[in-house]
Batch of 3 targets.
Target 1
Amino acid sequence: MTRASELRALLATTGTKALVAPGGGTPLEALAVEKAGFDAFYLSGYAIAAWRHGLPDIGLLGALDTAEALSAITRVINIPVICDADTGYGDEASVYSTVRLLEAAGAAAIQFEDQSWPKKCGHMSDKSVIDAGDATRKIEAAVAARRNPDTVIIARTDSLGTLGVDEAIRRVKMFGEAGADILFVDAPQSLDDLKRIGSEVDGLLMANMSESGKTPALSASEFHALGYGFVVFPTTALRVAAHSMDNLFSVLKEKEDTRSLRDQMFGLDELNDLVKLDEYNSIGQ
């Protein structure tokens, strides 16, 4: 069974409970997600930009940056990875090529959005989107590009913020007709919008919990009650870690000592366990 078919089997159970995928941009986060018992990992474009490159999520990276981050993760974990591929980095031909690239790197699902390039994080302001017909053709190209028919295609629209909820619903319905497996309206700004999308759109819906972003803070079970079967927490680990690092270096600068933070960090043995040292040491024994 491929990782894509594993993911499809998980998605088939979302009628009773939402599938939850924590996210990040590094293999260490992915290992921690797997160790915690989650069934899938979400590779976030924002997290790739911030964690791996120290950059904002404003379209500064390309397909090869995403593929490199994806390969580093799929080589060390055994659960499916859902990969954020931004706009596909170009036109329909670029989307087609991106699907082939990311499938080869181990993606079980690949997500595309309808923003104009350069794109922005979905919870930033002043986004713009391409024509709905052009966006739909890009989803058709993604569907056609799959070598593995089980590879899941996620179609996202960022049109709600600028064009309204009616247009966002219209677009994801078009994407569903084009063959997308999961439909994603990013950054709904109210509970009413979430309810409308959940009640008016057929098919498997995705929700994104971006803490302090535009969408009301809800639990996975609350999203599920509104009609969303797949819920991602794409940058939670990044935010917690960034806060912790900021505190760490402030303390170290002031005290020239980290002993007061010992209870906030892994011991060396715990960290070695997370990166599976014993597994590697057993090879050849």
Note: The first strand starts at residue 19 and ends at 24.
Target 2
Amino acid sequence: MLLMMSTLTFAQNSKEEPAIKEVIEKETEAWFNRDATQMLSCWADVPQITQCVSLLGDVVIFNNADMNKDNRLFKELSKEAPIKATVVRSDWNIRIVGNAAYVTFKQMDTINGATNYYHEGRFMEKLNGQWKIVAVNVAAFKPAS
């Protein structure tokens, strides 16, 4: 019985993983396209949203719900020109517990010939049948030579 329950849980989680990845991919695409409407559709409409990005050189960008009243983060995005980028992700880890998921992966993006590397994490919730981002954590890194 325990084995059957474990297999059923794995099967349910496996079905959710493509939907989770799709939201992350859409949100990243929206970021580079500077499409605030699309980006906003990927995020949960909850007061706990946070975004913390740590770039090389000790630059840290932190946004939370108080800083994003009236969706300021997303509105400001639309004022910028789109960025042409190639994005590759690897080392996906997805842990789903009920209607919540914690996702980690490595991301490499190339913009104007410059390649950037990141360890990324997302906390997501399934709200009204759709996965939404609640929190983003990003840490830039330099790969080992």
Note: The chain has one domain: 2-141.
Target 3
Amino acid sequence: MPVREILQLGHPLLYEKSLPIDDPFAPESLSLIIDLDDTLADFRKTNGFGRGIAAPQIGLLRRVIFICTKEPSFSGALINPVITKGTDRKVELWDSCFSFPELMVRVSRADEIEVEYYSEQGDRLRLEAEGDLSELLQHEIDHLDGIPAVMRAISPQAFMTRQEWLRQGRPTG
């Protein structure tokens, strides 16, 4: 199980733009997808939360994210994802990240988006997402553009430690 170290907030690679994947079937592309899947599964097992991870978070500046959600059910890699549409309607929410797991940040995101990407099989697909999935995809695609969620904070007071979050009885997520 090739679990990779997750880079933490402040690491310079988290602020760099990722390069596209030219060949989804290349051994290094397939290896990256497996590493993302295994690292996400390990983080969830260890921490009890987590729905997605981006390649820059494990130190690889490639445009790949891996998602695993329950509602709506979606699991797999999105290669070279691009947000092609987004509603003007925004939602504010508390966001967390594997790269700063003890910090919550309040952000504003589009309520609905459309993402075009390549699947692991090389198919060009389109995904319409709303609510939690929309927010998650925006968060992970931001990582590909070198934008950690802390850069999307709605104000200087839009931060809370996970300990305070839990003390207030909020969901663990």
Note: The chain has a mean pLDDT of 94.
